[in-house]
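[RESIDUES AND BACKBONE]
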Amino acid sequence: MASADHITLLHRGGRSARWGNLGLWVPGQTRDYAGACRDLAHAVGDAAGMRPGDSVLSLACGAGEELTLWAEAFGAATVMGLEQTPTLAAQARQRAEAAQASCDIEVHCADARRIAQLIGGRFDRIVCVDALYHLGARAPLLRAARTRLFPGGAFAFTDLVLDRRGGAVWRQAALRLGAGLAGIDAAELRSPVQGVALLREAGFDDAQVTLLDEAVLDGFCAYAERQARRIGLAGRLSAGWRRIALTAALIRAGRGAGMGYALYCGRVNAAPPTDDDPPDAWAATAPEETLAP
């Protein structure tokens, strides 16, 4: 148990999978971690209006569980996943090959923040499940996503949000410190209203937000408490569990400072700016960041 990673520990006792998000936890409904993670990803796909035949770009796709979801649950025709961690990108590719999905799934090892420079062509849907807060500045990423969507397309993602009026000064300072420990830029945390405004400034014609504070943040913390009892003392002493416990502790501290969680969607009605990249611009521009076949 001591060598188990945090993903394995989160899934222990439930279905075997490699999901790695905070999950969507419906109050009063018992489910395993894989089911909650799948439900959060499904909510993002629903928000994007994903439908059969769509081309999908999935940012920071982790070990690739979500890539097969877009194909199997929504009927996507083509799916491209970007994941900057080489081991996760390799797992995503293996997962896609093993699933034998009916659509074409590509996985590239690359930083999602460079989509404006690396990706040729456009997509019907761009999605990012529980990862945008790790991708730094929101504005340039939103603008880049806007240029990569077909007319009628949508970019749906989840993000941490912050009511800047909430919490005492010391709690706000603790939030900034905790965010830094988690690799999150607290200065990029906005209120839901500010997040919608940022989508509009990036050129999206329609922007919507849904708050999921309790269903995601509080739900994950409650699950972590239950899972700690399940795995026992040996599991709780492992490095993997310490990472989970720290995440839950930072969430609780953040909640006291006004931190929440939201699902955003920006839609494109008019044609995006013209793009002269050739269809195979990915391979031509950044072969060093593309997984070898």
